[in-house]
Amino acid sequence: MKKSLELSPNVSQQLKLTPSVSLSLEILQLSSLDLENFLISELEANPLVEIEDNVSFVLENSKTYYYEEDFDSEFKRPESISEILKEQINLEFDGAEKDVALFIVNNLDRRGLLLVAEEEISDKFNIDIGTVKRIRERVKRLNPVGCGSYSVKELLQVQFEEMGAPTKFIDALSYFEFLPSPSTFKLKTGLSNGDYEEFLSYFRRCDLRPFDSASLNAPVRPEAKVWLEKGEVKLKIFELKKFNFKINNFYLKHAGNKELRKFILEKYQRALSLKRAIEQRKETLEMVIKAVFEEQKEFLLDGMSLKPLTLSEISKKVSLHESTVSRCISGKFVETPFGVYPLKFFFPKGSRELTTDRIKEMIREIIENEDKRKPLSDRKISQILEERGFKIARRTVTKYRESLGIPGAFERKIR
Q1: SS3 234
Q2: CA distance linking residue 92 with residue 70, whole number of Å
Q3: Using one digit for the tens of pLDDT, what is the confidence trace for 151-172?
Q4: CB 412, CB 376: distance < 8 Å
Q5: Contact 47, 251 (CB under 8 A)
Q6: What is the pLDDT of residues 64-121, one digit of tens each?
Q7: Counting C-beta atoms within 10 Å of the first and last residue's C-beta, which end of the chain has fewer, N or C?
Q8: Which residues contact 178 (CB under 8 A, 6 or more apart)?
Q9: Which stretch of DSSP H or E encloses residue 250?
């Protein structure tokens, strides 16, 4: 019996980002320092963009942005990258998972690569290997990104993912060993000349030694200043500095032949997209930071109190996709009355139902059921709360206990 060949159409929808949307996401991901470096490269590549005076950042239609660098607070740098990672682990992990995450950080080499196999970690902590893999994936996405990888290729892949690089570029890293030879690499990956140049722009922003403490000497600049004024959250976005940047229309008006005009029009569209991307970055930053501190308003009062907060909650609050919020806070710092902090600091892990009132109620209940001959110290109450899955600092317990009008352990003791 002879089989006939039939053609059956298969219609599918695929979401493809336009160049302008892709540029906006890339700009949003950058810190202000990285954005300045990005713009320097753009100025070199685009003849329709030029620098004038070294005062402010100006775009078409004379829209001016000002930058102020006189911060009231200084960022206290940790002593090592290990310390930075451990501080984040204390916020992001609980219980046995925290122990595994800390073990991973304690077993990184100087490049940030993990020296212990997942199977060995699984045996050591008597947990299934799937759990180890999940914990390691979360560690890899702490700042600096990539620590806990097993190879430079894996380290690059997670950094590309966090930058929001196109899938084809992430897939191309499978041929990383060919990277030193551009012609061989392009041949293996099938990337066009334009794609290869874009791939390299992502690659140049990667850190091949994220665990190297030398990076602690890199400058830190807050994106915004946040404070409370009569109970209302106020914020000020720090703008870009060093640039007086405008679109140069001369080339567009005097483009002669067809090819030159096409080139100029492409560069002109790129310049306009860059303008919109920078404006949108500012608007998104302002919206997200305001939403974060509306939730973490108590921190602006005492510099201590933090409630559990997720990207999903902020995403819903500002009507943006969760991945956009993630890009917005990645690598960004904010100045508060109590110092300069990474934006990710204000997303501590914990129960979504954990509120200030709930914490106070638990403290009251613990004290009511204590042995009055041996009343509990605030530190012990903090430990009991942590055993119940709620990590609350001792000083926060003291603050909440005092707000309830409950005296300290010494005064509560029955003699």
Answers
A1: strand
A2: 32
A3: 988 999 998 887 778 888 888 8
A4: no
A5: yes
A6: 223 334 444 444 455 678 887 887 888 778 888 999 999 999 999 888 899 999 999 9
A7: N
A8: 184, 185, 188
A9: helix 250-253
